[in-house]
Each structure stands twice: as structure tokens, then as C-alpha cells.
Design a protein that fits this description.
Rossmann fold; 36% helix; 6-stranded parallel β-sheet
Length: 261
């Protein structure tokens, strides 16, 4: 620092010195964020992103631990209005898909008396799916919500909307808990409609619950994305390739009009 050389200084000491030498800033009073009531959930029809996240909004309750995976899930979770004493765990800076399933194991062990909800997509889940084995071995009981829309939706918003490199193998996800454990009792569901998802969420549950929500029944459902995800994907592409990059060719990205009402 200038002409002086300080050796062996810890970050804690440095930060403490900086705080003590700087006058305290007045605390700004932020206006409260008004909570918006989620729209009533339609009782029928194929699942859309809007209906799915509306259902999740109605399902969460005070004190929940919510682990959101990168991609569609972190965008959808970021738009939720969390009840009191909820904890949201996510990591978007590193972009390490697969993090959330492994993080679920950690949160379950750290706070066994709270309800834990994993929000993930099938592409990310395929990277660390084996952690379900450890979760079951320890007889832990989370809610796992998996979106199956046949690929990396966030990548389709950036480039390669119909490219096969954005597809993933179509596993029987809801059957994996039975593969990973012969002993534990699990509740697994595959839902393709709003009515089916609503029925599962309204039913009583006591154990390990795995809900696979299939959203790839048509091209429109495969491309259906939260608007914020699409706009973010377009911004990523412009940053990566420049405004006249390959994403400027019509049909190479999911467009905003793919959002289902």
C-alpha cells in the first residue's frame, strides 16, 4: 500500500480495520416489497411454466428450505414470494449445474427438522443424481420437484433452440428412488397436467417425495420458459458472441413469444 509492505495480514483484521476507520453510513430505509397474491391455479390442461411456478408458490410455507438449481429453476424460484423464515439456497455465479441436488443432502443433514424442497431440471439432475442414494440411505425425506422438458432450456434461450446438443437422455426419473434403495419407502409421481400436479400437492405426505413434471408434450411446451430466463439467455448470447453473432439468425433461440399464457 503505497511505499509500505504489510505481511501476514488476515482478511478478518483488514476488514475490521477498514470498518473501524470509516464513518458509519446511515441505514437507508427500503420500502417494503408488496406481496402479490398468486393467481388461482387452473384445474386442467397441460403443464406450463406459469402454471408450474404458480403451484410451487402456493405449496411453499413458512420455514421451508428451498434449494434452486441453475437455469429455469433459479429463475422461477427467484420470482417466488417466500413466507416468513424461509431459506433460499442457490448459486448462479459459478453456473455449476448439478450443485443443487448435492446441496440438498447438506441442507437435510444441517436442518433435519425443517421441510426441504429441491427445485431442479432434468439436465442438471443427471450430473449428480447419485446423491439421491445417500439421501435415502440416511432416511431423509425431502420434496424433489423435477422439470422434464427434454433438455437444457436455458441453453435453448442462448443458442441452438432445436440443436441436439441441448437435448438430454430421457430417463424414467421418478423410478430412480426405487433403483437407489431397496429398503426405503418413497412416494414418486409423474404429472403431465395442472390437475395432476395439484392433486399431488394437496395430498398428505410423510416420507421422501419425488415429483417429475413433464413439460415436453409438444414443441410449445419444450420451448415454454419464464420470460426472465429468455431475456437473460438473449443477454448472455449478445455478451458471448456480440449482437451480430450466430444467435442473430432467426430460429436459433427461444423467443419471448414462446411464453405460454
Amino acid at each position: 500500500m503505497g511505499a509500505k509492505n504489510y505481511q501476514g495480514v488476515s482478511i478478518a483484521d483488514l476488514m475490521r480495520t477498514l470498518l473501524e476507520s470509516h464513518p458509519k453510513a446511515p441505514k437507508a430505509k427500503l420500502p417494503p416489497i408488496p406481496l402479490q397474491e398468486s393467481a388461482p391455479l387452473k384445474s386442467a390442461g397441460l403443464l406450463t411454466q406459469k402454471a408450474y411456478w404458480n403451484a410451487i408458490q402456493q405449496f411453499i410455507r413458512p420455514g421451508d428450505v428451498i434449494i434452486a438449481e441453475d437455469g429455469t429453476s433459479i429463475i422461477g424460484a427467484g420470482l417466488l414470494h417466500l413466507p416468513e423464515n424461509c431459506t433460499l439456497i442457490a448459486q448462479s455465479v459459478w453456473g455449476s449445474i448439478g450443485y443443487a441436488t448435492a446441496a440438498l443432502l447438506g441442507t437435510l443433514l444441517a436442518a433435519p427438522n425443517r421441510r426441504h424442497l429441491l427445485l431442479t431440471g432434468e439436465g442438471s439432475f443427471q450430473l449428480t443424481a447419485q446423491e439421491i442414494s445417500t439421501i435415502l440411505r440416511h432416511d431423509l425425506k425431502p420434496f424433489i420437484f423435477l422439470i422434464n422438458n427434454h433438455g437444457y432450456t436455458i441453453e435453448r434461450t442462448i443458442l441452438g433452440k432445436d440443436a441436439n446438443y441441448n437435448d438430454v437422455a430421457n430417463w424414467r426419473y421418478s423410478e430412480l428412488p426405487k433403483v437407489f434403495s431397496r429398503d426405503r419407502i418413497t412416494e414418486t409421481f409423474v404429472v403431465e397436467t395442472i390437475e395432476g400436479l395439484q392433486k399431488v400437492l394437496e395430498a398428505p405426505h410423510k416420507g421422501f417425495v419425488f415429483i417429475e413434471s413433464v413439460m415436453d408434450k409438444s414443441v410449445m411446451d419444450k420451448d415454454d420458459s419464464p420470460l426472465e430466463l429468455i431475456l437473460g439467455g438473449h443477454a448472455f448470447a449478445d455478451t458471448d458472441y456480440g449482437p451480430r453473432g450466430p444467435q442473430s439468425v432467426p430460429g436459433t433461440q427461444i423467443e419471448a413469444d414462446a411464453v405460454n399464457p
